[in-house]
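Predict the assembly for these two chains.
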Amino acid sequence: MNAALPTRRWLLKAAGFSCAAALLPLAGCATSSQGQEEGVTQLRFMQNKPEVVAYFNQVIKDFEALNPDIHVVQDFNEGNFVPSLVRNNPPDVVTRGFAQATADFTRKGVFEDLSGLPSAGTINPKVQALVNSWGQYKGETSAIPFSLAGAGVIYNREIFAQYGVAVPTTWDELLAACETFRAAGIAPVYGTFKDTWTLQQGAFDYVTGGTVDVEDFFARLYAKGAGIREDAAESFSSNFGPALPKILQLTAFTQTGASSKNYADGNAAFGKGQAAMYLQGPWALSELVKANKSIQLGTFPLPATNNPADTKARVNVDMALSITRNTPNRAAAERFVNYLLQPSVVNTFNEKNAAFSPLVDAPAVSNPQISGLAPYVAEGRYYQGAGTYFPPSVPLGNYIQSFVYNRNASQFLRDLDAEWRRVAERTAV
Amino acid sequence: MTTTSQVGKATPPSTRHTASAGSPPLRQSRDKIDPTFYWMLIPVLALFAFFITLPALVGVFFSLTNYAGYGDWKFIGLTNYINIFKDPAVLQSYLFTFFFALTTTVVVNVVSLAIALGLNARIKWRTGIRTVFFIPMVLSALIVSFVFNYLFSNTLPVLAERFGLTPLASSILANENLAWIAIVLVTVWQAAPGATIIYLAGLQSVPSEVYEAADLDGAGSWRQFTHLTLPLILGYLVINVILGFKGFLGTYEIIVGLTGGGPGMATQSVAMRIFSGFTGGDYSYQMANAVIYFLITLLISVIQLRLIQRRGVSL
């Protein structure tokens, strides 16, 4: 260990020098063209959604008008984040979807403690708990939620009305609705199995989230650590069995040829009214409207049991603000984060992007596309998708795709347990 | 791949030099070497060492740690290496990659030799046809595979359905047992022109007198091919097989564009697995995988170089 430190520092230095050498000409161009003013702090703000660049540009403009001593540069190249950490030159303010991958940065202490910010008190504690549930660094608040995305079954209101189908509240009603559409010659569900992530966040997350206490399951799984055998009480084999046949029942109601369609195909086809339901999150809504301006959409949480009280919505903290540790511009970064968390900025963003505001006094949701989820989100009847708890080194989407194609549930559970065991063994050491 | 091409580029000047140094009537003295050769080599050597050797050594170093690519880490010895041998997903990717590289090498060489024979014959519009055959080589593999992805997923199933070929009506990219065929097909389509050029050069180096003599002796075209053409272009065949095989072992972008490693885990290549370590927080583990893969390819290269030397072919 002692021998390691100088070596590592040396390596980083070497890497830094090489990068500096490579970037020198570029940096020269950048500074000369921008002509930085005296006394202006430059902040780098990284966000990962290309579709909201324009919105944040406007926000930054307003912020800079109020704070002439700060200049904010928006950076939406998320792929740069890990390399920037390695170079020890990360962006000052970061927002990412908050799940296993981001939580891993948090647990390694990449972000500052934000619990002292005045805006931290305006956040709904239940939503903040979603962030903290991923693990904290020394009990700190490393990220403040900015946007909460609720996902469920997107449905075509016109097709539902045409065949007199009401929004299903139980699993049996859902199957009955599927049968009705199939009998009418309409694909009940549009499947895009070629993109494995759509299977993961759709059928897999919705059914497991409605039948298994996902948060508790993964809490026990993480607590147990390495060496979980298939017959252990914490294993996938012992917990996910009952959910799997329902996934197959659901995927069997997709159109023929679902295995060769991808997400873009799905958006185009569902937008044209080729299916009644679509297992996608709010990010698909704008794409569907793009495909068909007059489409009437709604969302309901997938009822995975016959007890409507069990039904929950899938949520994820789609954006959470963090400040990277040891930034030289901490004070400026805190002012920017506080500005972003003003109700007018947060609520406008979430209203525009069909998401839910994480503030305590969030306004009621009027958007008909997601209003079906609003009561569930307001009451806190939600879960974070099981797929989001997996470390990114587990190719979960590929395993789910295999399972849907081969319909071999026991093989799928064995694979998950074995893969989890191996990852736990090599990351726990 | 890189190493061989480097060796290939680096050797000719030095061999030529020693050859010319051997002949007596020279302006320079025997022991003095023209410094120009060093000026040509040293920058390349320095760049190579700095951008390839050094990062590779850093990778080897981190393969002995549990470094995720960021944050804290510690030494864990050979644990990563031991775990790799217990990981069926990694082992499967090795099996797939070698199977794929072998199959593709065979198919590419058969196809491109056939094309080269055709293009070398006296046919009409020979230059124009040659140009058409070389177009795949200038297209990016990623673009080619996205176009083929569309053909396999949308165009082919529609055509098959119209003509009543039900087995083809669903995309072969979605079939765990057949997806590799699509990958081999696209790789061959993309790699064949390069091999064809080398074969064409070989075929043009065969003097026409030998065929005239064979004609007089009454040898048929098949006998001419197996007894004259093939032995005379054997060196080119060896080069194609070796370069091709090594290139196909590193296959990545065509698979990403076609199947993304799916369906399920059916078409994950070793390179894809290694690359997943950068995004997956699995950096040190996949670095260990990369080191193992490097050793394996190194071993194959050494064996191949031995074979070449015995054949008297120089790359």
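The longest helix of chain A spans residues 4-34. Chain A touches chain B through 42 residues (CB under 8 Å).
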